[in-house]
Amino acid sequence: MSSTFRNRHFLLYVAASFLVQFTTTLFTSTSSFYTTYVIRLTPMQNSLFLGGIFIVAMPLSFIWARAAVRFSSARSLCLSIVLYAFVELLLLVDRSPVSLLCTGLALGVPIAGFMVLLNVLLAEVIDIDALRTGRRREGMYLGVNGCVVRLGMSLQYAVMAIFFALSGYGQARLFKLLVPFLAFGFCLDLYRLYFC
Q1: Tens of pLDDT along 26-72?
Q2: How far apart are CA 4 and CA 163, in angstroms?
Q3: What is the CA radius of gyration of the chain?
Q4: Are 84 and 111 in contact (CB under 8 A)?
């Protein structure tokens, strides 16, 4: 286990994976509030907004796979992260349902990169480790990465709870209703962390 955390390539990968997973899950959680209270999409438009991301992402995953072969998976992942940040900035200027739906379609481009490149890059990190150590330790790397990703999800829940508390959403009534579920989720995440 200690050699896993001494692997510089894996530490860079897991930090990038954590941030990517954290921002995308945070986006997914906040998008329903954004489309309800900021832009005010109908339920059908909201479905088109979120579904459009994956409608674009599926065919583009093949392009990202070719980019990984041509330019390297690390460079391609960096490009998809930068592209994601720029497309997310469009949410600051969207003022109509049509522009928001277009932004949703544009989000499919970097999301496709995440879907493909995170797995490819982890495989490359595992292969580099196997060359250095002479041992295949895929399970260790996948397990540690899974734990870190779950921590990102827990952090996202905490950020949303803080957001609800600071914004006064539901005048704390909703928060009081969620406390038992949040406590159970936190305990469940600690259980997963302990046994990872």
Answers
A1: 888 888 888 887 888 998 999 999 999 999 999 999 999 999 999 99
A2: 35
A3: 19
A4: yes
